[in-house]
Write a structure and sequence with these properties.
Rossmann fold; 3-stranded antiparallel sheet; 28% helix; alpha/beta; 8 helices; 311 residues; elongated; 3-stranded parallel sheet
Length: 311
């Protein structure tokens, strides 16, 4: 299937060897985990002399916190992490997602599903065939995942990853029964439309990558390179964003948080010693950054090479 048409791309997207992005959801202010993803993705883009973009993933109104998107952008600015291009917002890109969904439905790669969570409870929430006890007025739409849909890829940080999407995930939701677009469809369409070559994000999204690759194949879209950064965990061992310790980073005092993120990325603290302002710190970080030092760190659900389960 052909890629998305040129008009679906951001205006005047230049051709570069590396195009990365940071794509926060406005469900709260930026915390240490999201700063690590932003800083890590920025460093990898700068190390490759590539472009770094910011995209607001505001597709889930029930979970969004009023004003959070702007506070996130203001915090990034305070930390010196500015998008190289105009900031895109998923809430303004519904037509692109509808176009992709129509293609999948027309090709028989997607189908309307009336199953509820209760219907799928016996199968652990994994959809392999419709078992709905009654039709729904607004059914979901799912990607048809064939049996034994094995996806393997090499993550730049986490190593070799393999997942049987049919067994671990089942038929992937593309549009929810409440009418909202699913993250998996939106992120695949947006990465292709913006010409993203490298996706750098937290390891909590590692198990989403195989289903996104499967969807890219169904849409005839290129698959970017992936690098999943180590998670920042709270004292209770949970991902920080789901912990009571997930306090927002302080945009008034960015240097301590940047030093902390630098250390968590496995980089030598001495390289940033003496930096008294954000521009100086970022310049030192860019000069000293070594991607090979990034640790795998804590990872959810799997070890490299394992076929892991859906969260």
């Amino acid at each position: 299937m052909a890629a998305l048409p040129d008009e679906s791309r951001s205006p005047a997207v230049p051709t570069v060897a590396y195009r990365g992005r940071f794509a926060p959801s406005p469900t709260g202010d930026l915390h240490a985990g999201s700063l690590l993803a932003a800083f890590g993705s920025w460093l990898l883009a700068r190390h490759a002399d590539g472009a770094w973009l910011v995209r607001v993933e505001d597709l889930d109104p029930p979970r969004e916190v009023p004003g959070a998107a702007q506070r996130q952008l203001d915090t990034l600015t305070a930390f010196g992490l500015a998008s190289d291009e105009a900031i895109e917002r998923q809430s303004q890109r519904h037509a692109l997602y509808a176009q992709a969904l129509d293609r999948l439905l027309a090709d028989g790669r997607a189908f309307h599903c009336h199953c509820s969570r209760t219907d799928l409870a016996a199968a652990g929430g994994i959809h392999r065939r419709c078992v709905a006890r009654a039709p729904r007025p607004n059914p979901a739409v799912r990607l048809r995942v064939e049996d034994h849909s094995l996806v393997a890829f090499d993550d730049a940080i986490q190593g070799a990853i393999t997942q049987d999407v049919a067994h671990a995930v089942g038929d992937v939701v593309l549009r929810r029964a409440d009418g909202h677009w699913a993250y998996q469809l939106a992120v695949v369409v947006d990465d292709a439309a913006q010409g993203i070559t490298d996706v750098v994000r937290g390891a909590d999204l590692l198990d989403s990558t195989p289903r996104q690759i499967l969807l890219q194949r169904a849409l005839g879209l290129p698959t970017p390179r992936y690098a999943h950064l180590p998670l920042v965990l709270g004292a209770d061992g949970r991902k920080l964003s789901k912990s009571d310790a997930a306090w927002p980073v302080d945009p008034v005092r960015p240097l301590p948080a940047l030093h902390d993120a630098w250390r968590r990325l496995g980089q030598p603290p001495a390289a940033l010693e003496g930096a008294s302002a954000v521009p100086d710190l970022l310049a030192r970080a860019r000069a000293a950054f070594d991607p090979a030092l990034i640790p795998r760190g804590p990872r959810p659900d799997a070890q490299a090479g394992d076929s892991f389960h859906n969260r």
